[in-house]
Amino acid sequence: MVARHCVFWNVALGDYGEWDPAGCKIVDTTDTYTRCACARLGTFAVLTEKVEPKIVPEEEIWLTMMRYAGYVLSSYSSLHTSSLSLYPKT
Question: Which of 6, 20, 51, 89 is the most buried (most CB within 10 A)?
Answer without folding.
Answer: 6
